[in-house]
Every structure is written in C-alpha cells, then in structure tokens.
Amino acid sequence: MKTLVVGANGQIGKHLVSFIQDSDGIEAKAMIRKQEQASFFENLGAETVLTDLENDDIDTITKAAEGVDAIVFTAGSGPHTGKDKTIMVDLDGAVKTIEAAKAAGVKRYVMVSSFDTTRQAIQDAPESFAPYVAAKHYADEWLKATDLDYTIVHPGGLTNDKGIGTVEAATEVDRGEIPREDVAKVLLETLKNDATIGKEFQIVTGTTPVEEAVKSV
C-alpha cells in the first residue's frame, strides 16, 4: 500500500513516514512544500512530491495523489496562526485534498482532526481557538459526506514527549494529552486495519498497546 502523507514535514508526518518505511507491505510518498525538506524523507527511502497545500489547486494535488492507495492528512496550521491560515490549511487544504483523492481514485483517506469538533465544541471554545475547531469541524463533515473509505482520528493535546506505545482510544475519552509519536503509531495501525473505515475516535495516552487499542474502536 502506497500512502501519500500530506503535511509530511510536520512532526506527526515525519514520525508517520518513518514508521511506514519500517513496516512491511506499506510505503510512504511524502508531500512536502519545499525542496530542501526532501533529504529527510529520501534518507528513509521514501518518495517525495513537491506540492504547496495552501496555494496549489485541486488538479495539482490530484497529480500528487496519483499512484497511491491511501492518503493521510496530517497537515495543520496550529491553533495560534491566525484565522486566515486556519481557513486556508485546516479547512480549504483538507477539502482540496479530499477532492483530489476522489479525482485520483484514491478510496482510503485518514484525517487527523482536533480532539472535539462537535458543534458544541465550537460554541464552547475560547474566541482565539474557535476558528480552528470550526475549520476542523467542517473539514470532517466534508469528508464524512463523501463515499471515501475514511477514518477520522481525534488526538488529545499534542506533546513532543517520546511515545510510549500505549493509548486510550474510543468514540469518546476523557480529555488528555498524547505524544505526537504515538499519534503517528495510531495512524499507521489505522491504515493497516480496514475495520476502522467509516469510524472516528478520540485518542489520548493510556495503558493499551496501540495495535490493540485501534482494533477495539
């Protein structure tokens, strides 16, 4: 299975490409924005494709998706970059990638979302954070309205701690934190497990090994 990792140069994306390249039966195609980012992925033996998620059109992203079997969207502006960047990356960038998947005939699509993207979460979010939650909400809704084989992963608060390989995963879990490395491990197991198709679930640090936790959702 060849997998296009969107946002590959981000922290979750880098972990995911590394894990994919170390796995049997799956290989990564890293979508990057700058040529100078390529060496990291080339050293892992991963293919790269130069595409600007924010500024390129759907046709260009479709070309980047040609020849892959799955897409994982790990890109994100972050909650503190301003409303304009949030709209262009977390909402429009996600929607363009979803439409590119459809155009390229790629059925499998895994979305990294925010922990809680319900309507109530938008209403309850602080003013500075609400645009980010809203962007993620509508990107998730757009994906769910397609006939793609989607999975939506909702991680808790992201940290740069070393992953421990154990998580709690369910439709709803208590709010908590999770290392980005462990999020990437969950994404890899999600790709491997077709039983996750059509599902969305939250993840935080827990006591269940990642493979077992993903199987249980």
UniProtKB/TrEMBL annotation:
Q: Which InterPro entries match?
A: NAD(P)-bd_dom (IPR016040), NAD(P)-bd_dom_sf (IPR036291)
Please report the stretch or stretches of sequence annotated as the NAD(P)-binding domain.
Answer: 7-193
Q: Kindly give the PANTHER family that the UniProt entry links to this protein.
A: FLAVIN REDUCTASE-RELATED, UPF0659 PROTEIN YMR090W
Q: What is the protein's given name? A: NAD(P)H-binding
Query: What organism does this protein naturally occur in?
Result: Oceanobacillus limi
